[in-house]
Amino acid sequence: MLLYLIKRLGLSAAVVCLVILVLFSLLYFIPGDPATIALGPRATPEAIARYAEKMHLDEPVWRQFVIYIGNVLQGDLGVDVFSNRSVTTIIMERIGFTLALVTTGMGWAMLLGIPLGCLAAVKPNSWLDRITGVLSVGTIAVPSFLVSIWALLIFAVHLRWLPAIGAGEPGEFGDQLSHLVLPAFAIGLSWVGYLARMVRASMLEVMGENYIRSARAFGLHPRKVVFGYALRVAILPTITLIGMGFGGLISATVFAEIIFSRPGIGKLIFDSVMARNFPIVQGAVLVATSLYIFVVLFSDILIAWLDPRVRESL
Amino acid sequence: MKHSGTTRRGFLASTAAIGAMGLMPALPTAGFAQAGSVLRLRLDGDNDILDPGYMSGGTEIEAQKQCLPFLAQYDRTEEGFDWAPTYFVTKLEQRDPTHIDFELAEGLVWSNGYGPVRASDVKFSYERMKGTDWSGYFDAMDHVEVTGERSGTIVLSEPFAPFIMITLCHGPGAVLCEQAVKDAGGEFTNEFPAVCGPYTYEAIPGQRVIFHANPDWAGPKPAFERIEANVISEVKAAELAFEAGELDCTEVGADTLARYTKNMPDNTEITVAGELQYMWMGMNTDHPKLQDIRVRKAIQRAVDVDSILQGAYSGTTSKSHGIICPGLIGNRDQSGYSYDPAEARALLEEAGVSGLELTLRTLNNQERMLAAQIIQANLGAIGITVKVLPVESGPYWEMGQESKGDTWKDLELWIMRFGTTPDPYEAAQWFVSDQVGKWNWERWTDPEFDRLYQEGIVETDPEKREAIYVRMQEIMEDTGAYLWINHEPEAFVHTTDIDVNAAPSGELNYRLFDKA
């Protein structure tokens, strides 16, 4: 287990290093002078010179890279081009909103998708299975930005049941929760389908195993067989999927955050790209990527912990 | 033996419980539709730097106007735009072309215990601006003389007619508290070191800015006690928020403006702040394909601008006849050419040009791409093949600049839009001889134009200024290098129960909003 952990940590660190390299190179692949792009076409020569000095753009590229790596290792992601605020602080102010959105979105998708998958597997080819199948494929096929727009138009603009923009008043839990409903619905909907299909497939495989047949032969209650024995094994591949999905949702929130004008990492990246605020783009993408890697690593370790067979095979 | 710690079964149960929290029914949301003396608006992004010397502009200027004193403000008249003294001054007079006398109102007090607003604060603020990123607005100013506790004189080094209009009314004209700025280290970013105005400032990054009623404010009470400016980067999202009843006022895009104009929803009005943007198609007079003025004039006459206004802008923008925008001294109501494909063909024949192929570069956005396609079709009709090249904003703004590479040599046609301030001087400055290779991408020079530009700066008689700027646009047009397109409006949609106050360039002035 320890060796596995070391291997996985090493691989994760290598991916993070690669991301840092790519993000650093980004500034030099974009056509145009980085200082002019960041400050706008009518920036004064003095402002451009000051920016170049602040960003170390007047230094050789290799030295800029060394400075960048050194700063990142110390948790210093640079400063915002315009406000001079610490990029780390700006990201920390917003990351909680993204994590709340992703957790809620994936949370409701799990609560609905996993039971739906179980029910479909217990009665394969029944009308319930068929309806679940159609709904699952339907929700998977609809992109989250489309769900966001329709949810906004129906529930906020037309019916006015739920708020359209923002994250709610700071410190008011109810208000914040009501602002979370529509974006969480939008990003989680397709995951209901994914999870239902995944659980169904795993469950069908497990339900054919000898130990399940034995449990049934002993006359155990069907609920006990499904949830007590079959689901415990069938859920394992789903955990990997949830881990990857959780990481993927961090980047998928960008649409929901823009459409609902909700603060978060995705919107921060989008706004910063539009403003050519490269230190924030670099910092926020690095944090988002690191979170993704961390969540996937965590789900791998969790699988190893939950499944003795995986643990023993290491 | 009792076993403690996390078990696999326990983990699964906890996960399910945490997930269930996500499905908790939403609580009532009555709180988001506040009314009364709260005004809910849109900010297109966080205010990064509130310091007038280093700001980006836009909504940062909006914040300054609520929290800092200004000596002058824009005044909309029937003829166009003018200036008027603010309630921060009891006197603001241009004594002669180089001296502007002012007297601050009594009872103005800075927050945070910094005492009364003094003439020395004005001196500090304006003289400080000469060493900042916005120093261009103070090039003409020599110094400020303090003649009393609340009075002084702004001394210009040479006559500069638009000084009050473009500098004192605009963001750079904000007055700062000298001592507070010094205590803050000489510069500040996203917090005012001291305010003097009807509102105080509180920012929640990424979410909103709240302007609270300033308890130290002794001046006229604003109509709204609290302003909530929500950070909404996308215009479309803001329009939907308005339709959902969560904003009282927001800027609208061209298509929504057209939709609302055609079918105005209940309890809704449109206010147009100004049209201080001018768009044209430029031609490089140095390029071998376009060196013959007859070819350029043929292109001017071959494009049906009215089709562009309808097809790309849904009829929501004014047709342009030059660089001076509607409402400003020197605005023209007619061009010296018109859409005439037959004349265009004749000019091409006269020049002996056939099978001409040109590249039209434009920023890659919806309206300009549509405009480019209409131009492409119009020029195709007279035998000119146009390749439309969409360009990302980084390289786009460098295309004509000699200091940024060699693209200027290949530049043929391009669609350009500049924004301006409410004085014709600003728009004209980019086309003088020393701007060739910088912002005069058309690359022509004209001694008369340069002379008129200098005369326009010092001339204070409006009629003479009008004649100067009309003539300057005629000179530009006669080069054949300009196809005037339009002036896009800064339009705001709002509920009928509020009166919107916006600067000609579109910045909202919340303290002058009123209840209808």
Would you spell out the secondary-structure blueprint of this structure?
The complex is a heterodimer of chains A (314) and B (516).
Chain A: H1 2-29, H2 34-39, H3 45-54, H4 61-73, H5 87-122, H6 127-141, H7 144-158, H8 173-207, H9 210-217, H10 222-259, H11 265-274, H12 278-306, H13 308-313
Helix pairs in contact in A: 1-12, 5-6, 5-8, 5-10, 5-12, 6-8, 7-8, 7-10, 8-10, 10-11, 10-12, 11-12
Chain B: H1 8-22, E1 38-43, H2 59-67, E2 72-76, E3 81-85, E4 89-96, E5 99-104, H3 119-129, E6 141-146, E7 151-156, H4 163-168, H5 178-183, E8 199-204, E9 208-213, E10 226-231, H6 235-243, E11 249-251, H7 254-262, E12 268-274, E13 277-283, H8 293-302, H9 305-311, E14 318-319, H10 341-351, E15 357-363, H11 366-381, E16 385-391, H12 393-396, H13 407-410, E17 413-419, H14 424-428, H15 447-458, H16 462-478, E18 482-487, E19 490-495, E20 498-499, E21 514-515
Per CATH, the architecture of the domain at 95-272 in chain A is Orthogonal Bundle
CATH topology of the largest domain in chain B: Dipeptide-binding Protein, domain 3
- According to DSSP, the number of beta strands of chain B is 21
**Alpha-carbon distance between the two ends of chain A:** 6 Å
CATH architecture of the largest domain in chain B: Roll
- Terminus-to-terminus distance of chain B: 76 Å
Radius of gyration of chain A: 24 Å
Would you summarize the structure shown here?
The complex is a heterodimer of chains A (314) and B (516). Chain A is an all-alpha fold and 314 residues long.
What does the model show?
The complex is a heterodimer of chains A (314) and B (516). With 314 residues, chain A is mainly alpha-helical. Chain A has a domain at 95-272: Orthogonal Bundle (MetI-like fold). Chain A contains 13 helices and no strands. The longest helix of chain A has 38 residues, at 222-259. With 516 residues, chain B is of the alpha+beta class. Chain B has a 6-stranded mixed sheet. In chain B, strands 1-10-9-8 form a 4-stranded mixed sheet, covered by helices on one side. Chain B contains 16 helices and 21 strands. Chain B has helices at residues 8-22, 59-67, 119-129, 163-168, 178-183, 235-243, 254-262, 293-302, 305-311, 341-351, 366-381, 393-396, 407-410, 424-428, 447-458, 462-478, and strands spanning 38-43, 72-76, 81-85, 89-96, 99-104, 141-146, 151-156, 199-204, 208-213, 226-231, 249-251, 268-274, 277-283, 318-319, 357-363, 385-391, 413-419, 482-487, 490-495, 498-499, 514-515. Mean pLDDT of chain B is 90; it is low at 1-6 and 15-36. The longest helix of chain B has 17 residues, at 462-478. Chain B folds into 3 domains: 8-42 and 205-272, D-Maltodextrin-Binding Protein, domain 2 (3-Layer(aba) Sandwich); 47-199, Dipeptide-binding Protein, Domain 1 (Dipeptide-binding Protein, domain 1, Alpha-Beta Complex); 277-487, Dipeptide-binding Protein, Domain 3 (Dipeptide-binding Protein, domain 3), CATH 3.10.105.10. Classes of the chains: A mainly alpha (314), B alpha+beta (516). The interface between A and B is large, with 72 and 55 residues.
